[in-house]
Each structure stands twice: as C-alpha cells, then as structure tokens.
Design goal:
The protein is mostly helical. Among the domains are: 46 residues, no CATH class; 51 residues; 61 residues. It has 11 helices and 5 strands; from the N terminus they run ααααβββαααβααβαα. The strands form 2 sheets. It has a 3-stranded antiparallel beta sheet. Helix 8 packs across helix 9.
Amino acid sequence: MARTESPPRRAGARELEQRLNKLDSEASARPRIDKEVLLRLAHDLPAAWNAPTTDPRTRQRLTRILIEEVVIDLDDKRNEAAITIHWVGGRHTELRVARIRTGRYPEDRKPNAVEVIRKLGGQWPDLRLAVTMNRMRCRAPDGQTWTTVRVRELRERLGIPPFDPTSTKVETISVDETARRLKSCVGSVHLLIRQGVLPATQLMPSAPWQVPVSALDTEAVRAGVRAIVARRPPNFAVLQAQKLPRLPGL
C-alpha cells in the first residue's frame, strides 16, 4: 500500500524550496568578482592605509582582514618584546620592540603588599586595587599576581573596611579621563600636575593620580591647556598621525 506524505512534511518541503530560491536570487544579485580588479585593489592597499582620509576605525578593519593572529614573547634580558605577526595566507613577520620601563619600582625596592593595602585599602574597589598593585609590580607572598579575591582576603585580614561608593568624598577621576575631558594628552596632564596648575593627589609613589573633577573648570587649568596648545608645532596633526601603528610593508 503506497504511503502518502503528510501535510507537515509538504509544508516543510515548500519552505526549503522557498529558502533555496531566495538564496539563488541573492547570489545572482551579487556583483561579479573581477579577479584583475581585486588584485589591483590589493596592490593599492598601502595607499589606502596611509591615506590622510583613512581613520583609525578603517585601519582596525583592515588589520582584522589581514592578520590572523599576533604572538608576543617578552625578552627580559634584552628588555624587548618579540612580536610575530601571522598574516592571512600563511606568511609571518617578526618584529622586536623595546619595552618601556619608566615609572616602575626598582627591583630592590618593590612596595610591600601590606603597606599598599593599608594606604589604598578602602579608597578604591578591590578590583581597582588589584590592577594597581599588579602595575606597581607588588607580588603576593607566593609570587602570584593580585586578583580581586586576593585583595579582599588581605584587606579583611588587616581589618580595613571595603570601598563605600556612597561616602561623601571629593569626586576624582584618573589622568586618562582628565586628558579625555580636557581634549589633550596624558603627557600634557602630567605636565600640568608637575607645574602645580592642576591639583592632584597620589596616595603613594606609582599609585594612580586622583584629579578633582571640580578643578577642570578653573581658569588656571584652562589657561594651562591653552598654553600647551600654543606651544605645539604647526605640523602637530602630522606628528600625531605618525604615531599611529603601521603594519610592516604598508
């Protein structure tokens, strides 16, 4: 006895047929790929990368298309970072970049974890404390890096209360955020701090600077920023563009 196909199966077959027809129509509507034009575009890639109209976002998109992965190996003896770029297609490029060591504690004078927690504990959330202690190269007794859990355990053993975001304190921001709000760079913000124009506090050496938000609207700070801008060379925009990352060969 012959079996008949049930209505649900017929409906499913019609749905698949419609999807196939839709895919076929979309494929036929796509422009035909010209191999010669595509190769010419590849040769024009350096011009597209270095064009003054190419913004950082476009360069990021190009980087994601060209690079499969980047492997970084730190060479402590030479104080360099060995960078291997694996390009899409199988080739790779090796680079060596000098590591910056400014602002770090000397090897024989690293801060003590208990001292850091006593001075900074309760001032910031435990996560920010962990990040700061790792930047200060303040290692735990077992040599491991600091995490939020480790900071909380040490803070509680020392009897230091946690950070209270509702406490009445002067609102402060980081140097990076200060530079963003002043539409300047981090180096200029540090210069204003050294000159005494921009008030800022540092609870201990190498700890992050805390800049009062109210200080940004003072005439002294605005005048300091104008003075920095006035000292910039005429080709400042060109010099800033030269600091953008450049891919080898582009």
